[in-house]
Amino acid sequence: MRALLVDRSTPSGLRLGEAPVPEPAPNQALVRVVATSLNFGEVKVGIERAPEGTVLGWDAAGVVERPAADGSGPAAGTPVVTLAADGGWAEYRAVDADLIGIVPPGADLGAISTIPVAAATALRALHRVGPVLGRKLLITGATGGTGRYAVQLAKMGGAHITASTGNPAAHAAGLRALGAHEVVSDPSESGIVDGVLDMVGGPQLVAAHDRLAENGTLVAIGHSAGQAEHFPHGAMYGDWGRYNRSIVTFFLLSHRNLAPDLTWLAERVAAGELDPQVSWRDTWERAEEAVDALLGRTLHGKAVLEIA
Asked: Is 202:227 a contact under the CB 8 Å cutoff?
């Protein structure tokens, strides 16, 4: 089969080549991939660290070619959205049945391919914060793929949303259209909030934590800042209105049984209730352009590669 292989001799660190078709385990389906979406983490860290010839790719949407031998998961011919630690940048992938969501017939599989990491992360992180109806929520790094899904899902949940972005002048209108009530350039400019979804880490995480109300929760999702978190003395005191505040780490692939969430999210995208915010889309022959845009931070939203 054809696949995008790690090859650090090329400018993007990738090349189209040949790889063996994966052999599924009994609890896995073989999926023919139609489209995949790129994530900053896999492009930045994955390509740097993976062995040469590796097939990366967390997100993929396609059609079940061969169902799981143990009877779990959808039948052959079912359109699906899938998540795995690798293998999405290829014509076929083997994926655990509990990481496969069913897609409504006729849905745009390119748009659907943006769901696994970005939308499922946003949904599960919101679950960790707890009910958000009538509560105040701060979302940092809100212009990224996960941030944009988080704003929309938090709006569905009835939250009052403050979105943080490095360039409010350029992105405020778009974030407000997705559901943000306020847009700030730094978490320190937010009022006191009941929960935080932090996509950035470093000093922004520290500033966001300072905005937490009593019993508030910060979910640390992303680490794009590449900087350490240094908290001032007293930040963790449990008095002076700082009662029971918590910081929770997050790793999506530690979550199992994501199939119902992926199915629900695919239904919302197919129905037009969630906008995947695709800002770059083309065939995988032009993957280098998408990688450059992601690494250069000029691509906001999601990049979709169609498997030609």
From this structure: yes
The token pair at 279 is 């800002």
Give the predicted TM-score (pTM) of the model: 0.95
Do 228 and 131 fall within a single domain?
Answer: yes
E-state strands within 144-301? 160-164, 182-184, 193-198, 212-220, 246-249, 278-283
Q: How far apart are CA 112 and CA 23, in angstroms?
A: 25
Per the CB < 8 A criterion, the answer to whether 202 and 226 are in contact is yes
Element (H, E) at 203: helix 202-209
In a domain, 255, yes or no: no
Domain count, the chain: 2
What are the per-10-residue average pLDDT scores of the chain (308 residues)? 97 96 98 96 92 97 98 97 97 98 98 98 97 97 96 98 96 97 97 97 96 96 92 85 90 92 98 97 96 89 93
Q: Residue type for 147, please?
A: G
Q: Looking at the domain assignment, is residue 147 inside a domain?
A: yes
Q: With contact defined as beta carbons under 8 Å apart, do 263 and 112 qualify? A: no
Longest dimension (CA), the chain: 61
What is the C-alpha to C-alpha distance for residues 126 and 147, in angstroms, rounded to an integer?
Answer: 11
Nearby residues of 196 by Cβ (< 8 Å), 6 or more positions away: 129, 137, 138, 139, 140, 187, 208, 209, 211, 212, 216, 217, 218, 219
Domain encompassing residue 287: 2-102+277-306
End residue of a domain, out of 231, 249, 267? 249
CB 85 within 8 A of CB 16: no
**Is there a contact between 39 and 145 (Cβ–Cβ < 8 Å)?**
yes
Is 257 inside any structural domain? no
For 155, other C-beta atoms within 10 Å of its C-beta total 17
